[in-house]
Structures are given as C-alpha cells and as structure tokens.
Amino acid sequence: MAALIPEVLRAERQFARLFVGQSLSILGDRVSFVALPFAVLSIGGSAADVGLVAAASLVPMLVFTLAGGVWADRIPRQRIMLASDLVRCAVQTAVAVLLFTGTATVGALALLMVVFGVADAFFLPASTGLLPLLLSGDRLREANALRGFVSSTGLVVGPALAGALVALAGPGGALMVDAASFAASALVLARLGPVGGSGAAERAERLGFLAELRVGWRQVRERSWVWSSMLAMAVYHVVVLPSVFVLGPVLADREWGGARDWAVIVIAFGLGSIVGDVCAYRLKPARPMAVAAVAMAVASCQALIIGSGAPVVVIALLEAVTGVGVSLFFVLWETSLQVHIPEQVLSRVSSYDHLIAVALMPLGLVLAGPLADGLGVHRTLFGMTALAVPAALLLLAMPAVRKLPAQAQEGALSIHP
Hints:
The chain crosses the membrane at residues 50-72, 93-115, 149-169, 224-250, 262-281, 288-306, 312-333, 354-372, 378-397. GO terms for molecular function: transmembrane transporter activity. The chain is an all-alpha fold. The chain has helices at 7-11, 13-42, 47-56, 59-72, 77-101, 106-134, 140-190, 200-205, 209-221, 224-255, 259-282, 288-299, 302-306, 312-340, 346-375, 377-397, 399-403. 82% of the residues lie in helices and 0% in strands.
C-alpha cells in the first residue's frame, strides 16, 4: 500500500499534511463552482444574476491580489492562508444558512462573494510562496504535479459530486460541504507549525507597500523568461479560454448534440489534464520552460479544434491532448518560478501572474460573443488560433525561455536594490 503513495508525500511530512488539506479544499471549490449558480437560480435569480454573483468574487481579485503578494512576503504565509480559509469557510457557511432559512437574496450572495474574493486574493500568492519553504528544489516539480493532479481530477469528479449533493441536499447542502473543506484545510494549516524562510531579513525591512511592490515588479521586468511567459499567458486567457467558456457551448448548441456533446469534450479535456499532471510528475526536463512553451503551443490550438467541424469524438480526443499541454505548462511554469525567484519576493512575483490571469480573462469573455455574432463562430475561432499559436511560438523563440535550467545556479537568487 505504501508503494502507491508518491515518494514526495512519504518523504516530506509537512508537504503531505498541506497536500491533504488543500486537496479537500480544491474538491470543495469544484463543488461550489457548480452549486453556486443553482443557489442563485433557486431563489428566483436570473441568468444575469448568476453572472453578477460569479463576477462579485472576481472583482476583489483585481484590487487585492498585488496587496496579497506584498503581505505574503512580509509575514508567515501559512498565517495568511489560514486566515483566508477561515474567512472562506465563514462565507460559505453564511450562504448555506441563508439558503436553508429562505432568507437569501441575490444582493446578499453577491456581497458575500466579494468577501470570498478578497480572501482568495490573499490566499493565492501566499500558497505559491509557501511550497518552496516546505520542499527542496528538486521536489517542487513533483509537488506541483500532485497539486495539479488533484485540481484536474476535481474537474471530472467535482461536477458529478456537486450534482449529487444538490439533488440530495440542495445548493445549501453542497455549499456546506465546501465550507467543511475550508475548515479541514484551516485545521491542517494551524497544525503545520513554524516554517522558516530566507526572506526574514527582507520582511523585517518593511520598505513600504509601494516600494515593496516595485521590488516585485523589478524581479519580473529583469527576467525576460518571466515577463514573456506572462505575456503568453495573457494571450491564452484573453484569446483561447473564451473559445472554451463561451464559443464552445454556443457551437455545441447550434451544430452538435447540445450540452451532452459538450460535456463529453469537457470530460475528455479533464482526463487529458490528469495525464499531463502524471507526465509532469515523472518527467525531469533539463530545460523545463522550453517544454512548457511547446505545451503552451499545443494548448493554444483549442479554438482551432473546437471550430474545425470534425466529429465530436475527434474533437474530444484532440481536446484531451490540449489538456495534457495545459497541465504540463502550468506545472513547469509554477515550478520554475519557485526555483528561480528568490523566496523573499516570490509571492509578489506570483501576484502579478495571478493578476494577469484574472484581470484579462473577463475582457476576452465579453468580446468573444459580439465578435462571433459579427464574424461568425467558426471565423472567430480560427482568428483566435491565428493569434494564440504564434504567441506561444514566440515564447519558444525567447533564448531565456529555451535555456532556463531546471535548477537555479549558484548566486542567481540574489535581489538587487
């Protein structure tokens, strides 16, 4: 039985504890993703209300993510994550209670989701920065792959679990499960114990919020492999993801078999993502960002695949391949950040990464529909591909991306004033 447990979990007890707590939390998030829209609809909300409540958790991310990065580099990161989990547990519990008592309103749910989004904004940079403090550099890729595996598995298991919970206990019951997952994660973080880090002296200096933010931005600007990868991800979030979230369902409704066929494609993508995480766990590329850039090019073909006119089975198989690419890219990218960025500024650098993803994706989601109405769905999807794939190939053309080693060189993690 022990042989079935990955070595990194057996060897790294601190990480193993964190992994269990975060796995439960991720599964709870997948349940909430499905249950929350049904919660809005159950109180008489419209489709616009569903969008309003969903957007309410994103807006604080735009405002507070950079602040979350600064604070995560100032104080122990597990404390920030613990506070965030407790807040999110309280929010989901409050939503469930409002639903159970019949007192929920769209406005109340939206306001609670704003609070949820603020907690999220502080959690994400802290989470990225905590992992290198628990693991040695050569274990980071395995740990990130395991986290990705749980996230990808949640894409397949979460919706099914959410559907069963909503049917049995209503949206409120499903959201109570999410609240319990945050409580479990908080319990693990509370028992994690002190975690040291090389950033203690830097945090003690307290340069001032804007000055510390500029230090983080300088780390991004001075590393061409970092800012070029962030630009490629910006294109992916603005151009590629709308083809999945907006135009894919539209095409399924108009030309395929509707929601059933789209579900097949989404599940295939999720299964491919799981395979990608397994590959990321086992592979040890000498030049990880070169592999990541190729994976991004594969992932960027999703719009072309969806709009190809091929049979649904073929589209599903090809989407599974892009799922492999997506998982490989994000595991190798996050590991490279954790290896090559100084620990004392890592959360600030990752906050810029999270901000780009959250800030720009809504722009693509808003523009995709009008463009498809004006140009046609297939032309829009082909146009998306014409933008996204060259952007990924340009990333591969960057020498700093192709040549970045798997391990940091001696003295490479210093911070210049």
